[in-house]
Specification:
By secondary structure, the chain is α/β, with parallel strands linked by helices.
Amino acid sequence: MDTTPASHNYTVQPYKGRPVLFENDQPRPIVMYSPGDAFGNEAKGDVDRFLAAGVNDFYIWAGRDEKEKDIFTTPWWHDVDKLGEPEFRSADRFFSLPEKVAYILQRNQEARFLVRFYDHPPKSWKAAHPEDLAVDEYGHALDEVSLASERFAADHRRFLQHLVGWIERQPWAWRVMGYVTLHDYEGTTLNSLMGMIFDYSAPMQKAFREFAPQHGALPANRFAKERERGGYMHWPDPKTTQAERDYLALVRSLFLGRCTLFVETVQKTLSPRQVLIGMDALKQGMQGWICNPFFEGKAPRSHQAHTLAASGSWGADEFFRIPGFNILNTPYDYIYRHMGAAYEPEGIVDSWVLRGKLFLGENDYRTYACAENLSFGYARNTAEVEAGLWRTVAETTARGSHAYWMDVTSFPTPKGGYFRDAAIMNTIKKIALVMRQSLHWEHADVPGIAMVVDDRSALCEDFSSDYQNLAVMWQRLAGLAHCGAPYRIYLWEDLLADNLPDHRLFIFPNLFLMNQERLDALRHRVCRNGRVVLWGPGTGITDGTKLSAEWTGKVTGMPMTMLNESFARRVALTRFDHPITSRLRGSISYGDSTPYGPILLPECDPSISEQGIVLTARGVNHPGFAIKDMGDWTSVFTAAVPVPADLLREMARYGGAHVYSEENDVIMASKSFLGVHSVRSGRRTIQLPSASPVWDVTDGKQISEWADHIELNVTAPQTKLFLFRKP
């Protein structure tokens, strides 16, 4: 039987250039599997398969209460206000936390655990307190608690103390590496996922009157009819949206309070033991995420509410600085998981790593072993499985993050068991060995591409997802992922970090708010040293008091004009006499059919190099892709997004970034590591930044004693990993 050591701590510390897990001040690799909450013993077989593959760590759901039968609750809180402990046991079920722990420890005494649970109250609590539920814009009560519910805040704190305290009293508690919660629906509210902005519940109405008494009451929903008939995104006059912005600021403060309550309560309950404390939330890389229409295919794509803004998940820099919040967990982006894509986390991984914290990616990779064969880019055969699983290793190794395998269901039916196949588990066994070795590899970023996201930018818009879906999400999925140079994604606040790498191309897709303080920060930290800076269509459109082209002209250095109209727009390249465009082959046009406005455009002027024109529904004759030499940096403005990979590649090259590949393969690189994911068979030449010895990661064999390039014969789909030092 386990005996709890006097002190057993799990912390996050820097090691070999990246944040890693430490167990009692010793670095520990994260090689982890999350089994499903199964209604059958097949999940035990899943655990056995991963144990045999060399996996010691398990990310375990706390389980639901059998009486409540609600996946979002736990057996520690039931019958409105009763705090108890798991009572359900069954030889036919691999379900309760104690049973899971016992089963795993019988087979591996080295096992460690992360515990995860939703923060929802039980169904009985919701039934007893309907006045505390959120109410949507049509007057319907939702199956979620309002962020403004003071009753839930108090009961939630008591529940957390009880749950964590109960686990910490178990003999195996010292094996628990940490606690992770899922606020609401993975950091977003059900209301916002359904495309809504306002919560009209009584608690929220009361909170708003106290927060912003000058408005008297919550504003009426003036977006519903526009959203129903399919509207378009616009940047509004700031004077007309103060009530809405105050509401979103209130929601943000409430969500920040809930996150802080979780971290502080767990810390206090654990004291003096230190563990990982984190959340599946704060998906700042998902600006423009249109959730329900994607997963359900029912709601219209157009004019969806900005999910993160309506959930209070903005201004994340302050969330990131909550003392004790040291691990962020998110799934990988579901939109483009297919072969040929970058496996990009929903969370803003590079910002988190830059701050020295642990990022954990949820690899719930659908495969041919399950029946979800029409969804989420599932792997159709063993070649796709192998290429996809190694792609995740390459992504995490290059960017200093971590990942784990996860089964969502694990029912004893074809629906679950994403990894229930001998060939799949053989690949995972090889990967587990590499993950352990990679703990001790030196990590450092190389100068490449930085996309800088302003997660407060939704407050400058009409609170829809339309534009940002193009400018942020599809820019990284369809452009950055294929440009042949490594990229990173940061928050605006990261520009102040002393350890920000010397990237050569900076992209600002949603930097709408501009003032002298922000302009000074750009000039000091970005616009210098030969870099190229790409400004998105709405850059500088407001100073917080009015809309104009004034600040756009100041930040880009170009004479600008503003058309107070909203149209879809595209850009067609028409000249190729600048070094950024001279290598491109033939005509290139890009953009989208989503309308947005007002429209900012450069004036025709001798000081700029006009390389493309803007195409809109209105006949305007203005530059759409313009370049200006600013002396020690280069300013580029685009009137449409997303910008294609070929054009990004040339901007990165001109700014001094090293281009590894010209083939639109997915390149994942750091100073001593390279991953190449490709879906086109044939010969490849991968250019290295400098000559070095080269090892093949998958088999540990040296393929060159000294080389400045790698010759590949790709049999697609394929992912290859290389190390520029001995494994």
